[in-house]
Amino acid sequence: MKNPFKRNAPEKEFVIAGKKGGLGTFGGVFTPSILTILGVIMYLRFGWVVGNVGLIGTLLIVTISTSITFLTALSIASIATDQRVRIGGAYYMISRSLGIESGGAIGIPLYLAQALSVALYTVGFAESVVGVFPGFDIKIVGLITTIAVAGLALVSAKAAIRAQYFIMFGIALSLLSLLFGSPIEQSSIEMWGASQENSAGFWVVLAVFFPAVTGIMAGVNMSGDLENPSKSIPKGTFAAIGVGYIIYMGLPIILANRADALTLIDDPLIMRKISYWGDAILIGVWGATLSSAVGSILGAPRVLQALARDGVLPRWLRWLGRGDGEDDSPRVGTVLTLGVALAAVWLGDLNMIAPILTMFFLTTYGVLNITAGIERLLNSPSFRPKFKVHWAFSLLGAAGCIAVMFLINTVATIIAFVFVVLIFLWLEQREMKAAWGDVRNGIWMAITRAGLMRIGVEEESKTWRPHPLVLSGAPTKRWHLIELASSLTHNRGILTVATVLTSSDIAAKRRKNMENNIREFLNKRSIQALVRVTTAPDAFEGGERLIQSYGLGALVPNTVILGDSENEEYRSKYCGMISGFHNQQRNVMVVHQNEDQGYGDRKRIDIWWGGLKGNGGLMMILAYLLQSSRNWYDAEVHLKMVVENEMAGKEAQKNIERIVEKIRTGAEPEIIVSNGRPFNDILHESSKDADLVLMGMAEPDENFSEYYAGLQQRLKGLPTTIMVLAAEEISFGEVLMQQDNFQED
């Protein structure tokens, strides 16, 4: 089936181009950003801030808040000058760096936050209008305003931006009126704010003020409509932050000189009283709310359009990715956003959800910082931004965002985090595949490199893990080998599934395709494994070569799992291969499968044991690993030992019980007295009801082929049996008992 996320054009270009005839820096980024920054909090809450913490405290709060926003802007500039930022703004940046799941986990809440922000701002506008004209109905004014704002956005983005120029003029007029105003009474400058019993704490005030500086995403969300995103996003964003900082640092000086602390705290419209023309403040308030609503109604549908085009939304919502007109305007998405906003205006108490909306915005800022920090920290050759930022600044910005989120509202922060995590898990479960690469492989590469460089060459018993390599041939024909190896390594070791092809004319591309097919086959069956396909003139020689060369540094397969071969024609080569594995210090597990029984009910494992040394210790470990796996969970392990007479049996019983108690594997010791009976008879009688039998093999010598032939005769009629040959230099007895400093007698 064709991948719906594939693209013909490359996602990333070094020469970054934008939309011909699109918006410029001033109209596309600076204007929506500065108008969102200079918002309702400036008009209705800034006096309260100064009254509570005074001039010095306010200047400090403004500086801290703007610093976090500035650090985020640095990260945005770094990402924007490294890749072509298309429709979707912050979502696009995150998804192309951290992956489609992470981008979607941020993009969906970001869309909802922006859509509900339209309602939040239009209701705020309606409340201020009703305050001046009490005869109006708040809901009706809110609904009419929401429709008008959406209608403006439907005409075109450029028309909405032009409308924002008039709003900017109104805000500028209100600030000039405030500048040339006068005090309402004679009062000393408020340096430190009201007394402690009449004021809120510093961090409470910071939490109230901080949303005032979080408007930088309004310009980023217009990325798809910009003529040159890589140039306009950094310049416009930095300019908006700088202008906003100057205004926010100047206003406290005016407020602190024109009213006392209690007046500033008690009167939300104190600016109207101390301005030259008080009604200009109302114009500013209305302009601030409407401009923020326009910014949200422009940004939200574009995020939705990008989500739909990338296949993040369910298939039945893909129509939301449609664009209309020459500017590819998301009119369908705008209509849907209008519906969401109207429903919120009519039904909701937006004051309850406002803190969660702020959390979604701050989460986006934090993840953008993390994205830029990781990209820079990994030092990937593909990350070549024109605007370079040290990773420490980006991660500091992320830490600042998270800290402010908890300061503003801990409950809302937790709700936002849970919502984002649930979306991420939902998208990950869908196993989405995108045509673009992301930074996650780079992260794993860095972690893997650091781990490999620290792994010692010498094995230690305390850290031993099984790293099996299965010589499976075609996986479908020897699935029982892969299933067994997966049970041994689940969340513990590294499994490799390998195939040796005896044809010498197989091209590298065909081998690569075969590896991909096997990998896909394993993934569908939830088997986590590496895959290796190699060629050799002879399968047995190829197996030895593979084991000798395969691996990375100290991380190599330590155990080879292969199926039994009863073909007498190849027995000599087969045994030679086992001998070669042993000489390379690789443990060997030869699985003799009972075709009729398979692994039975997976309830009982028999170990024919001769002590902890060599094969005995390894068999104990293998049984324990199987017993703790999902397929063999809680199976009974019977530890069987044959002795010649009753006297030897009593001594052996005492020793084996002591060992089992020390190693704590849950095995049940069973001493069998032979009384002259042949071992073969005892083996078949005692293990006939087992589901799996583990037996040791002798070390290969010049007579190993004859020994192996006799071993195969012994296994006929038994349940599925694993013949184990330990070869590593470590003591598997120490692996089992290193915590007890116990030595076998």
From TrEMBL:
Residues 479-578, 597-667 form the SLC12A transporter C-terminal domain. Residues 29-439 form the Amino acid permease/ SLC12A domain. One of its GO terms (cellular component) is membrane. GO terms for molecular function: chloride:monoatomic cation symporter activity. Keywords: Membrane, Transmembrane, Transmembrane helix, Transport. The chain crosses the membrane at residues 21-44, 56-81, 102-126, 138-156, 163-180, 200-224, 236-256, 276-300, 330-347, 353-374, 395-427. Pfam families: AA_permease, SLC12. It is found in: Membrane. It is a multi-pass membrane protein. Belongs to the SLC12A transporter family. This is Amino acid transporter.
